[in-house]
Amino acid sequence: MLRLPFFTYLQPKSLADALRMKADAGPDGMFVAGGTDLYPNMKRRHQEPRVVISLMGVAELRKMEGWNVGTCVTLSDLSHVPSFQRSQSAVTTAARLVSTPLLRNMGTLGGNLCLDTRCNYYNQSYEWRKAIDFCMKKDGAICWVAPSSPRCWAVSSSDVAPVMVAIGAEYQLVGPEGERLVPAARCYHNDGINYLTKQPDEILAAVRLPAPDGWDAVYHKLRRRGSFDFPVLGVAAWVRWERGSRNAERGTIVDARIVLGGVASCPQEVPEAGAVLKGTALDDEAIAAAAEAAYRPSKPLDNTDFELSWRKQMTRVYATRALQELRSRRSRRRE
């Protein structure tokens, strides 16, 4: 039976208190929200903070004001906001596809956006990892997925992060030096260890979603079971339709983004896929070209579920399905 190590648990009531507590704890302190990722990791000795600072008592982190969402809003609450279901449906879909209802009741938006990267060789018990020799992500010096690699290849397994990158959301970060607003895409590194640009003493306080204004987005997830499992592939597709001209009648795309999850250490945008969609009406030829463009840079490794070459093939399939859904939505709205 895996047990939590001993630690001091603090419950600040404001952001200022939380930052002060983290400064006092130094490297031994970590922030936690719902804890659905951190506490299992602590049981496996992936993270070993001596001071855990809960953010769930900070009221301002649980607010939802317009298109600004506090990061301690639970995934269950996020997936059932009526206005979001209409105009931010990709966000609610991604939140609803995370794990199981029980974990979504505890897990938060911020926790999923900052989710630790995962790997078959890393997400094991301490004794298991010790038996094969530790990996470079924790206690070791080698990546067992790619032994000759100088970097860690653990995979980003967030469902909501690819959607935030695709729709162009912004993250509000609060730290000792003040506040900063960062585009979602700039908050992630393609490195299994240093996967966030957020500093350890900063708090992801809120997410600013773009107002619904001529764009639409969808999210599709591949996993073995219909619930619980992390994504082995996620596809977030975003398009902006031209308005105010004859082209609007046939649904011409003026901008597009396709972002992949589960195939790299960060949400991976494929600019070539978005580029081939611009100026098209999202016809079969454009969808096939975009899906092919998304397929080429998708390079999953043997560190999650399923056989890696099949997962790569599914990139083309899931990108096609996502774009076809966007086209179907457009058609229904014009009827």
Key terms for this structure?
alpha+beta; 12 strands; globular; 335 residues; five-stranded antiparallel β-sheet; 33% helix; four-stranded antiparallel β-sheet
Can you put this structure into words, describing what you see?
The chain has about 325 residues and is an alpha+beta fold. It contains 13 helices and 12 strands. The strands form 3 sheets. The chain has a 5-stranded antiparallel sheet, with no helix packed on it. Strands 9-10-11-12 form a 4-stranded antiparallel sheet, with helices on both faces. It has a 3-stranded parallel sheet with strand order 1-3-2, with helices on one face. Helix 11 packs antiparallel against helix 12 and helix 12 packs antiparallel against helix 13. The N and C termini lie far apart (about 60 Å). About 0% of the residues have low confidence.
